[in-house]
């Protein structure tokens, strides 16, 4: 390996300096740079043992960055795509669902501010919230102007 090529561990640390990454994300991004079988796994094992790779921090980071703008469904898919364990995803989504209506209402209020004048406008508002991962019941309550049950 030449001096101009950073080690796998160096590349992983550079990625982790930017934001939290799950082990699966790092494997996906660094696999093309692996020169011998098992080298990447050893580097990631070492980083994980030292606490540089932490699934709970990945979950917390995604929730912090995305929960204010996305529904539980979209956050769930994002966590799954990052390779977060099913248990951690389920816990995070359960926590988000408690505030789903309030978050959807705040996003709707910032974007639209008032109920739609007609059915086409209402459909557009509903599609906007659906694209952000909010569930149908929550969307109907927000766009229909009904408060939390």
Automatic annotation (TrEMBL):
Recorded coiled-coil stretches: none
Keyword Cytoplasm among record annotations: yes
First-listed, main subcellular location of the protein, grouped into a coarse class: cytoplasm
Organism taxonomic ancestry: Bacteria, Pseudomonadati, Pseudomonadota, Betaproteobacteria, Burkholderiales
Domain RecX second three-helical: 54-92
Localization of this protein: Cytoplasm
Residue span, RecX third three-helical domain: 100-143
GO BP term, example: regulation of DNA repair
InterPro entries documented for this protein: RecX_HTH_1st, RecX_HTH_2nd, RecX_HTH_3rd, Regulatory_RecX, WH-like_DNA-bd_sf
Signal peptide interval: none
Function text: Modulates RecA activity.
Pfam families in the cross-refs: RecX_HTH1 (PF21982), RecX_HTH2 (PF02631), RecX_HTH3 (PF21981)
Protein name: Regulatory protein RecX
Keywords from the UniProt entry: Cytoplasm
Organism the protein comes from: Hydrogenophaga aromaticivorans
Similarity annotation: Belongs to the RecX family.
RecX first three-helical domain location: 10-47
A single Gene Ontology CC term: cytoplasm
């Amino acid at each position: 390996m030449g001096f101009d090529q950073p080690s796998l561990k160096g590349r992983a640390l550079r990625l982790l300096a930017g934001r939290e990454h799950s082990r699966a994300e790092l494997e996906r991004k660094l696999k093309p740079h692996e020169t011998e079988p098992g080298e990447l796994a050893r580097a990631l094992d070492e980083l994980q043992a030292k606490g540089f790779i932490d699934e709970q921090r990945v979950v917390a980071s995604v929730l912090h960055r995305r929960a204010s703008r996305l529904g539980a469904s979209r956050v769930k898919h994002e966590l799954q795509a990052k390779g977060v364990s099913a248990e951690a995803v389920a816990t995070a989504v359960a926590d988000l669902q408690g505030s789903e209506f309030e978050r959807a209402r705040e996003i709707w209020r910032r974007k639209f501010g008032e109920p739609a004048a007609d059915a086409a406008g209402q459909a557009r508002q509903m599609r906007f919230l659906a694209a952000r991962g909010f569930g149908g019941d929550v969307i109907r309550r927000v766009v229909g102007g009904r408060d939390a049950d």
